[in-house]
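[audit] Reproducing an earlier prediction to check determinism. Same input, same settings, fresh worker. If the tokens differ from the archived copy the diff job will pick it up downstream; this log only records the rerun itself.
[audit] input (153 residues):
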Amino acid sequence: MALAALGVLVAAAAGEARDEPGDPRQADCAEALAFGGARLPAGAHDARCTVRTWLDTEYEAGFRMPRRDVRGWLRATYPDAPESGTASCVPDSADSAGPADLCLDLGLTEGDGNHAGRVPGSAAPGFGAAAVQVEVVYEGPDRALVTFTAFTV
């Protein structure tokens, strides 16, 4: 009887230790950015990436890069996208690194008002996101913190 009770406790503890659906897991940054049709820019460092999957998929990449290169990287990555600015910035949240200095909010499906000019699966090797959000916080005159989120809806 005691052995059976111990087995139940061990099974319950093992179940609690497992990731729940939708919990963030560490992800490869090349994979995270590729999901939204992007690549890690030259000069990027301190990259950390996660993925959440359950009903939808969401990749998030956070990295630092030279401030002077941010707009060029965004234009090269999404050449047909609207110009980045502050209009699409979301007010600070608990997860935010601070007030954003630059944002880009893109739909990746044809017909989106903020269409990036790219459709999932069309870029080599293809990507799966339906939307991408980029938030940039300038950390001084030379460095920027970039948060890149690509997700299905």
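[audit] rerun output stored. Observation attached for the diff report: The chain has one domain: 22-151.
[audit] end
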